[in-house]
Every structure is written in C-alpha cells, then in structure tokens.
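User: New here, please read:
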Amino acid sequence: MTTHRTTVAIVGGGQAGLAASWFLGRDGVDHVVLEAGTAGHEWADTRWDNFTLVTPNWHCRLPGYEYAGPDPDGFMTRDEVVRWLAGYAPTFGPPLREHTRVTSLTQRAEGGFLVEAEGPEGAEAWEVEQVVVATGGYHVPVVPAWAPALDPTVDQLHSADYKSASRLRPGGVLVVGSGQSGAQIAEDLHLEGRQVHLAIGDAPRVARFHRGRDCMTWLAEMGLYDTPVASYPGGLAAREKTNHYVTGRDGGRDIDLRQFAAEGMRLYGRLEAGAGTELTIAPTLRDALDSADDVYRSICRDIDAHIEAQGLDVAPAEAYRPVWEPETDPTGLDLDAEGITTIIWAIGYRPDYRWVRAGVFDGTGRPTHTRGVSAVAGLHFLGLPWMHTWGSGRFLGIAADAEHVTGVITGRDDRSIERAADLAGRRSPGPLNTSAAVA
C-alpha cells in the first residue's frame, strides 16, 4: 500500500467537495480531494434523461464560479448541469484524484486520521490531520422490506435508476412517492403518454411563479434559504422534512397532481404493504392533496406579506382553485388488474457511513454535527441537506457552508454567511418575513 501525507483529505469530488477545495486552496492549505468516480458524476448517473433543475439557474453559484448563461431565471437540463459543473474544477485546479474510492476512515492513535482507498494503481493510504466528508446524504436507495414479496413479473427500480419512459416495459407504471423525484418522474411518464399510477405521501408543494416572479427567487430575497435550521419551528426536526414538489420542465411550471388526475393519472394515498399483485393503501389521498395545497397557499401568502411590507409594485395575486377532487380514497390496488408492469420507488435514501470509524452518528446512521463540525476533532461534514440552512445541500448554500467548515479547519475567523455569499457572487437576501419555513 502506498502511503501519502497531506494536511486535509476531502472525501467526495462533487460540488461540496470542490467548494471546500476552493477555500483551502485560497488559504494555502495542502489537501487532496478523493473522488470515487469523476467529479460531479452523480448528476449524470442518477438523473433521468429529461431531468431539469427545480431551482432557477441563478442559484447555481459556487465559490469563484457562477452560472453565466443567457437564462438566469430558467432551469438547466441534466446535461447542461453536467457541463456547467465540469467547468468548475479547471478554473482553480484542485488536487483531485478521481476513480479513488475511500474504503475506511479511522483516527490515528498519534493524532489525525488514516484514510484508506482503492485508486487506479491499487490500494493507497493518506495520513492527514483533518478530514471533510463531502459525500452528501443520499447513499442507499430505500425500498420497503416487503418489496421482494411482490410478483416477480413486475419490474422494480429506484428513482436513481430511472432514465426514460422508453426504457421501461410496455404497460402501466406505479410511482411510489411524491417528493421532488417522484412527482417529476410521474410528470415525465405522464407527458410521454404512459398510464401512470402515483402513490403520494406527505410532500408539500409550491407554486412555480407567484405575482410575476419565481417563488424560489422570492423566498431567497426573503432570507428563507439563509435562516439557520435551529431557528425554524421544531428546530433540527426540519431536516426530516420532504422538499416541495415543483418542476423546471418547459421553462418551469407548477406540478398540480389534481390536474394530472383530471388528465388520466391515477392517484392513491400512502402505500402500506403488498404481496403478489395486491397492494394495501392507506386512505390518505384526500388529506394529502389538501395538505399540499395548504402549504402552496401558505407560501403564496408569505410572499404577499413580503410584497406588502416592502411596498413593491408587482402583478396581482391569483388564487389557486382545485381542478379535481377524488371520488373515493382507494385502500387497495391490484397490479395485474391495472396492467402495471413497473414500480418505481421514489421514497428516499438512507445514509451509509460504515466506512467512517468514529462515534459521531445517531441512531439512524446520520452524522451528528454543528454546522458540519462533529464532536471528533478534525472530522467535518459538508453537502448534507439542511446541514445549516435550507440552502445547504443546494448550489445556493454551498459557499457559506464550505467557508465555515474550512474556516474551522484553518482556525481563522469565520467570515459569515454574508461574506461567503459575496464570494459566490450571490445577491444578498432581505430580512426574513415568512412562515413558509414550517412548510
């Protein structure tokens, strides 16, 4: 095994790991970025062919690098995101080692850490003083424990493996989960003319546009994405919330499941169990639709309040009115009777940090930390959803999180969210004035 020495090892070469490298490079800190595949490969590997961002392009800002295309309020496709992110590393030349998969991280008795990996030339080890784990929070796709009991003639795949309607067998498709991936995959299949069945959970929704502007632009200016998680109602429990569903397809629009249903999509409540071709469904459809609409309206009201408080002269509000109501609340579904040949599980991921040998994880396997800094000296995390704010884990919030973590590493004074936002070139938000945080 070849042994190397450096000051900091960054595990993961996605946008979070590269952002940390940018700051460490700026501050003259020796480090290495270890990436199992190629930098940013997740965007190409785990998004479907017609994927688009749900956040406006102007959100795409990393330290020293930002979207500079012709449509800042539009939504890049998967391939455009891949190309944009691929242009980042060449702007500053990070010490990036691709195709180097970290297999273990342990504390050394004499101090620091030993990072072991498999690289292009075989096994290697890195003796380092500090580590930044920037592998994100989505590692192992979740499927129900009873999924193997379903009829084997029905294909099953996770949302991470879905690419297009044309790659699926003919027949109906059941999408399970109505978070961002589930709702957008259901939309993709629906637009391709497939018979879609969608089992929805408790995901909220948000308007794409309100009063002449994108809702996410309004919320950014209201300061929502920069508010620390501890300041939200329920505090750290906000990390468990599902993101609102919306789409960037065709220039961006609402995802209205009621409209899809009016056009022929079949909607169901929460999927509870199954065996063979029979599925059991909780009668939660009506409540789930109403709850998602309530959040939609709540966010619009918060934006209205912000507009009024700022005295802005913008387009008038338009109230949402439901276009469809379920006649029944189904409690079962027969896959064979409905001609369903494929199930797509879009119910999330679980973390997998078994390679990190340190006592910093809670009972669910998630790292415990304060703004990315763990209780083990020198061990840090970056790129987690809700790591510090709602913007964490998104392009919009990475600069602030990365500067804070690297500031702890170097021991210099933290330059604050506002300073990191300036470095990323992002517009400064106004004061927080919204209850959308609880949505």
